[in-house]
Amino acid sequence: EVVRELGAEEVRWFYREDRKTWKPFIGYDSLRIELAYRALGPASGPAEPREGEAAVVEPVCVRSGLYEVDVASAESYPVYWNQTEKIPVMRGQWFIDGTWQPLEEEESNLIEQEHLNRFKGQQLQESFDVEVSKPVDGKEAIHSLKLSRNHVDWHSVDEVYLYSDATTSKIARTVTQKLGFSKASSSGTRLHRGYVEEATLEDKPPQTSHIVFVVHGIGQKMDQGRIIKNTAMMRDTARKIEEKYFSNLATHVEFLPVEWRSKLTLDGDTVDSITPDKVRGLRDMLNSSAMDIMYYTSPLYRDELVKGLQQELNRLYTLFCSRNPEFEEKGGKVSIVSHSLGCVITYDIMTGWNPVRLYEQLLQKEEEELEDRWMSYEEQRLLEELYVTKQRLKEIEERLHGLKASTISKPPVLKFKVENFFCMGSPLAVFLALRGIRPGNSGSQDHILPRTICNRLLNIFHPTDPVAYRLEPLILKHYSNISPVQIHWYNTANPLPYEHMKPSFLNPTKEPTSVTDGESVSTVPSPTTSPVMVRRHYGESITNIGKASILGAASIGKGLGGMLFSRFGRSSTTTPQTLEPGKDGAEGDDKKATTVGTLPLPHSSSGFLEPIVELEHRIDFELREGLVESRYWSAVTSHTAYWSSLDIALFLLTFMYKHDQDDTDKSNLDAI
């Protein structure tokens, strides 16, 4: 080989975030940045000064399309969100041995220029021709270059060392040389020209088949960039899980932060002006966080919050599709991960719920009550007149709306169908309960979120998160006595698929599966007869060390629960019912709810109790508690502990890759 200018594939570009070390771009990105860089100046490369007006070069899309690089200013910036700090990028030509970190660009350019001036066109030695008996250290420098704080020595064409000229290292160098150590080994750093691996266009990221919008809750005003950092944590964690468990799939899931709060004006500074000055720090913190809940329950500002989130979701989706035109063509899917209050606002956008509708329902109810009571002839006549007028008003409104609709077609609320809606640390269940939603008798998710709007609803929470509530008991009441599904630890070997996990009771006196034909049926705890008060402290996931303390606390709870139950317990005439333990894989994913008549026979021929209604799909999923963490401390920290959890990352990807995995498994079986 002859010494010539570095090829575009030998140069490697780097970026640096949060003032940490330089990270290399993947080959696909680096090669495209280098080609754009060369398009800016003369074809002969950066060694010569650039002439005339620099050509305008389009920014280069990098890092799976999330960032763009402006080659002229040597900066990178995100595409989908705003970031005050720009990310510096650097062109690497000379690299430090071992770490393969690039030398600073100025020094690198000087060394490269000197190298080409001195050695261009010379033959490179093949590695096996080098004399083994003569180590580098013994050779004299055949060329040297002085830099500001250090100097470079060439011992041969491809043996280049960098020496620091700082006083301390000079002393160290003379001492070590006198002791018989060589110059190179004492303080020299070996340099390499060109990166350790060549950049190729094949080294590119997989295609995005699924995008996840990450929606923040309260407190974003207090710390504006927080959702961007949290999403970055979730994305990095998901990448690790993808590499470990889903590397056989040719697609990947992309996470995009949805920052809806900072653009809103709301009341301006009115709330700040009425805030007293004492303990101002605490008050400001509450104004920036808890105040969001008050804004959301205010009829004046609620719509502004809803519109803010809705517009940001649609803006991001449109922008993503414009930059990835094949996403929709190939049937790309969209999921939403919401945190805290974000879950409630996202739910309301998807379902179109608003307080006006609730008010209309209340008025209707009042009218019905009015009709039922006795009234005079005059009252009756006026009521009929009011009814006729209302009907007429309704007809006129509909006709007017029809005329408007024909001229302006109303766009859908969201421009995409939501595949999975993941709630994390969500108070949604409380909001729904306060809006009058009560348990029904069908095990379908449609009771709170129709499948036509969103395919799957999943509620994730930490057992000690004080803001999180369960959703399942709002669909079927007896699920308040069935524990949430435990989320697998990410490093569990061969975990049981979630759809095959059998429901387990919160406070079972005996496992239902252990009942034999001869045993009394009354010993089996049943979801409707077991007291609602006696619950919590489910420690199936925790090892025996943790169990002891939990069971101790549970026994106190039992005593208290017993007293309350004797006072408020349900009627003993309630039909006993439980889940049928005789079936293997109790709840298949596609299995529909099993409905039995209102008064089923207490015994079946097998001696087990007949099942009543089961949920079609489980909704509540609970993180496993750590053994060492304090319950009270984790109650403080758990509400924000979801972002970097590997368990949650694996859980999210398991559901998002479900169809892809099923297809891969099917094709593998076909091949066999």
Automatic annotation (TrEMBL):
The record's GO CC annotations read: cytoplasm
The residue ranges flagged as biased composition, category Low complexity, are 520-531
Q: Matching PROSITE patterns, A to Z? A: DDHD
Q: Which residues form the DDHD domain?
A: 414-658
Query: Is Ubl conjugation included in the keywords of this UniProt record?
Result: no
- Pfam families annotated for this entry? DDHD
Does Metal-binding show up as a keyword for this record? no
Chain segments annotated as coiled-coil in the UniProt record: 360-399
Ranges of biased composition (kind: Polar residues)? 509-519
Q: Where is the composition biased (Basic and acidic residues)?
A: 581-593
* Key words, A-Z: Coiled coil
A molecular function GO annotation:
metal ion binding
Q: Where is this region: Disordered?
A: 509-531, 571-599
Q: Which residues cross the membrane?
A: none
- Which family would the database say this protein is a member of? Belongs to the PA-PLA1 family.
- What's the name of the protein? DDHD1 Phospholipase
Organism expressing this protein natively? Stercorarius parasiticus
- Gene encoding this chain? Ddhd1
